[in-house]
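Q: Joint fold for the lines below.
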Amino acid sequence: MRYVDFGKTGVKVSRLGMGCMRLPNYEKDGKTVYDEEKSIALIHRAMDLGINYFDTAPFYCDKQSEIILGKALKGGRREKIFLSTKNPIENGSGDDYEKRLETSLKKLDTSYIDFYHFWGISLQDFVEKVKAPDGPFVRAKKLKEQGIIKHISFSFHDSDVGEKEGDNLLEILKMSEGVLESLLVQYNILDRAKEPGIVLAHEMGLGTVVMGPVGGGRLGTPTKAILDLLPGKFVSSAEMALRFIFANDKINIALSGMSTTEQLEENVRVADNVTPLSAEERRRIETMVKENERLAGLYCTGCKYCMPCPAGIDIPEIFSLMNYHRVYQITDYAKKEYAMIGKVSWKNYKDASACTECGECEKKCPQSIPVRKQLKETHKTLAV
Ligand code: SF4
Ligand code: SF4
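A: Joint structure:
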């Protein structure tokens, strides 16, 4: 395993991190059951292979992930790894923030968290909740002094962005007062909107972790469109996606949610590959991804001029899912994401079926996209 300095936090981390959001499970009586024994064995195997950064969160795996990870770290393993978990910032109350931390500590059965995240925050959350008087920001600093939190971190999820996608991440970093020590953000070969934020975070000395390096499963199964990006060069699209991340020295950790030993060993093999992607290979991938983005742009460039929609639809977000289907043939992923609209905090908008056909968006679209017609088509294609 290769290790790097995690920003200026003073610790060295493995370039591959283990995300514990997709632990081994099976279906029983129509319900998902998390297999504790297999999960613990997988975590131990990851440690044996040199992974030293393990990420979980209170709601992962039907709230079982923290408990299982805690059990896996018994027997002297806890001190050998860096443990990352998250606090869902529901409000600006410092007391509530501390209560949620206590719950995580109990579930993990540990006395401290190495990297404790303000979870999935937007710029608005950061200003109004995290930085509320005597709120999470103030309490996190106090808990760090007490040694309960070793490093203060944040993960960013913000679809309501500024001029360009990713701008709000830059704003949070500028307001971080040297308190935030590491950043966790979605980033992969198909979704590079947060790249300027990653670069700035790295320059500021924050550790940088990317989640979804293989597209949260999007790139896990090779699709012809993806493999055609560099024919014959990679075993799988997942390998190409991971090597793309490892070729970027602004990113310290690629965090991958792994469910099987095969997946784990394959990812470790890629992480251990000492021949990084050559500059030429990286350039070819970027050129081809850009060409595919251009194709996607023929449908919708994501400029957001059509927003806001009076019916509460996030038109560009919905079209970007449609593009995963149209441009990259990553249809299963697009359908899963579409099904989550309105059900998770970072998809707090309506799906295409809410369109009242008022036509306001079409008047503002510089691409002259027949938004109403395409929304109907999208719903027909992606709603399961
Ligand atoms: S036509 Fe539909 S999508 Fe466009 S602004 Fe009106 S309600 Fe929103
Ligand atoms: S204005 Fe048109 S191109 Fe821009 S995001 Fe809306 S639909 Fe897409």
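Q: Anything notable?
A: The chain has a mean pLDDT of 88. Residues 147 and 246 are 32 Å apart (CA to CA).
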